[in-house]
Design a protein that fits this description.
The protein has 8 helices and 7 strands. It is α/β, with parallel strands linked by helices. The protein has one domain (10-257): NAD(P)-binding Rossmann-like Domain (Rossmann fold, 3-Layer(aba) Sandwich), CATH 3.40.50.720. A 7-stranded parallel sheet has the order 3-2-1-4-5-6-7, sandwiched between helices. Helix 1 packs across helix 6, helix 3 runs parallel beside helix 4 (106-134) and helix 4 (106-134) packs parallel to helix 5. The protein is globular and about 55 Å long. The protein starts with 9 loop residues before the first strand and ends in a 17-residue tail after the last helix.
């Protein structure tokens, strides 16, 4: 498959001040991309931008609260006016509460969906028209293996990521149907050791490992370069598709056996952006 050149391309990453977002910023920057970083944590974002700029990377950093539709519109308009069109949009920002449903407040549930789901729509809508007008662009959705298989203490998170997977699939099909050459990629990793899911456990680490962030970053950037539509990590996540065909009680038993049902029992994590 032909490789898509990243040098000189403008890449916007949400949730870019730390974790996967910062890792992707570094990786795209090394490829010669011009970066636009969005995050709600201003001081941490400034620190990340300074690090990247010191490495000679072209970087712009904007503090943006993705739960505020007006803030997204203002920031997107500023980017398009002052910096120019975005070639690759990476919808990475995400949060996790890690609580049973009965312990979640309505505000916590709403915030999960505002950041993990509604921000996908709002941010993509802000940049997609310019991509269409230019005849090209790439929308990357960082979803989760939790968007393919649900588990305990993640009712809000998994639901929001199921929606993210559906968003990517529907957008991809819609762009093809309308004849727009816009590529999409959905990335569905299992737990990643960024701090966001501190405390999670795995019964079979050789089969369902806690992922190294650098591996997820490498696979994501490679998918953008190669035009791959889907990245699932680790490979065993693909087993979730045929498992959907078996009786539900067997499916639930297998989730218990592989340790997924109780993987959040010792969750500590952090509740800030990814």
């Amino acid at each position: 498959m032909a490789r898509h050149e990243l040098r000189g391309r403008r890449v916007l990453i949400t949730g870019a001040a730390r974790g996967l977002g910062l890792g992707m910023a570094r990786a795209f920057g090394r490829k010669g991309a011009r970066l636009v970083l969005w995050d709600v944590d201003g001081p941490l974002l400034d620190q990340a931008a300074a690090e990247l700029a010191a490495s000679g990377i072209d970087v712009r950093a904007d503090r943006v609260d993705l739960t505020d539709p007006a803030a997204i519109e203002r920031a997107a308009s500023a980017v398009l006016t002052e910096s120019g069109p975005v070639d690759v949009l990476v919808n990475n920002a995400g949060i996790v509460s890690g609580k049973p449903l009965t312990e979640l407040t309505d505000r916590e549930i709403a915030r999960t969906f505002e950041v993990n789901t509604l921000a996908l729509f709002r941010t993509t809508k802000a940049f997609l028209p310019a991509m269409i007008a230019r005849g090209g662009g790439h929308v990357v959705t960082i979803a989760s293996a939790g968007g393919l298989v649900g588990t305990a203490r993640l009712t809000d998170y998994c639901s929001s990521k199921f929606a993210a997977v559906g968003f990517d699939e529907s957008l991809r099909i819609e762009m093809k149907r309308l004849g727009h050459p816009i590529r999409t990629t959905v990335v569905c990793p299992l737990y990643v050791s960024t701090g966001m899911f501190d405390g999670v456990t795995t019964r079979f680490s050789w089969l369902l490992p806690i992922l190294d962030p650098e591996k997820v970053v490498r696979r994501t950037v490679n998918a953008v370069e190669r035009g791959y539509s889907r990245v699932l990590l680790p490979w065993f996540v693909y087993v979730g598709f045929p498992l959907r065909l078996i009786p539900m009680r067997v499916f639930d038993s297998l989730m218990d056996f592989f340790g997924m049902s109780g993987s959040m029992d010792r969750f500590r994590g952090r509740t800030g952006p990814a």
